Description:
EC number (chains A, B): 1.-.-.-
InterPro entries (chains A, B): Pyridox_Oxase-rel, Split_barrel_FMN-bd
Oligomer: homodimer
CATH superfamily of chain A: Electron Transport, Fmn-binding Protein, Chain A
Distance between the termini of chain A: 41 Å
Protein name (chains A, B): Pyridoxamine 5'-phosphate oxidase family protein
Order of helices and strands of chain A: EHEEEHEEHHEEEE
Enzyme class (chains A, B): oxidoreductase
Strand order of the largest sheet of chain A: 2-3-4-7-6-5
Organism (chains A, B): Streptomyces cinereospinus
CATH topology of chain A: Pnp Oxidase, Chain A
Amino acid sequence: MQGTRETTAPPAAYTPTERTVPTRSPERASYDKELVHAILDEGYVCHLGFVRDGAPVVLPTLYARVGERLYVHGSTGSRPLRMTGKAEPGLPVCLTVTHVDALILARSAFHHSINYRSVVVHGLAHDVTDPDEKQLALDALVDHVVPGRSRDARPANKKESAATAVIRLDLDEVSAKFRTGGVIDEPEDLALPHWAGVVPLRKGYETPVPDSGLAPGTELPGYLTQR
Amino acid sequence: MQGTRETTAPPAAYTPTERTVPTRSPERASYDKELVHAILDEGYVCHLGFVRDGAPVVLPTLYARVGERLYVHGSTGSRPLRMTGKAEPGLPVCLTVTHVDALILARSAFHHSINYRSVVVHGLAHDVTDPDEKQLALDALVDHVVPGRSRDARPANKKESAATAVIRLDLDEVSAKFRTGGVIDEPEDLALPHWAGVVPLRKGYETPVPDSGLAPGTELPGYLTQR
């Protein structure tokens, strides 16, 4: 569609790089922004990797996405956040989010697998020092856990905000990887007497348990009954 | 109990090191072997961190525990497994397993949290080359996903085993970290009109979906009906 506006639309995919192209099963990799965003938005915890004294460190932590930026927060005393504040031009990190969707039981041990969706982000983490961006990130971190929740809680006061460090990681060098579908067995194994199939894992919430001493008349909010 | 056999029993805890003692919330850290084993045994996927060209890489992968050893497997072509084969005296890794148990919604944004249990293992990964240890690890990897399953599947043949690399990481420099319990709010916030409480996340299996073409008379095995 030469000359139409579509040709100047922002790219719908991240550009693959040497380290985001897998050495194995390239058909399970994707650079599609919509897919990457959906996987990121569904997770609660990411695994943040960084290098300390030459050795890798991988820590679980909450995160949130705002457009093409990820935010991670923590105490100003936590190691990766302290290290980010000192690193120029930023702290090299790898941030990974993984969902395990189902167990795949094949007739052969070798073809056992899981259905999963993961996103791996490489880049430099930067300290967020702008007060407006920091507030945006703190709201996003609460809304990431329960969409809409930040409007139904007391916002952080100055002391709480000062005790919290926020770092930013741009979505630039990014890939998704996934497995979907059913069992793949060798043709000669199909007649074996072993059960084979897909075992989906449970998702979502159990019934919320209210804190004791809620203010009189406080009902379970709609954002907790919708999934 | 001086002089009794108990005093020479193996230690029930890992020895803390500089990098397994958190800078924050030390009361949420534990070195108890039983707790560490339970967290590891409940997970499906770990996040394996290593350093490549000076930058961190964090990849999700299946794993299994046998006593005080963890095993990770993959294609012989996968990057961390290839790197382990070449690394002397082993590849520095950090292997982390995390369970998210519940969302904690406090009346204040600042006190929002999650209940979680995680284990972080630091150490050197080694290639498993002994055929018996490799077979033990491959069985454990299948049994880790579904206990008892390795006896109900065709074992790997020579070609499949040759295509699979296994690495070992000893449980030595290990810590667990966790949050349990309910909402912690500031006393002055308790009268605020916001709903607060614990939202447990669903765990376990949905109904297993059998593969098409199971051998006649193949029933759902007991190890899939028990949880």
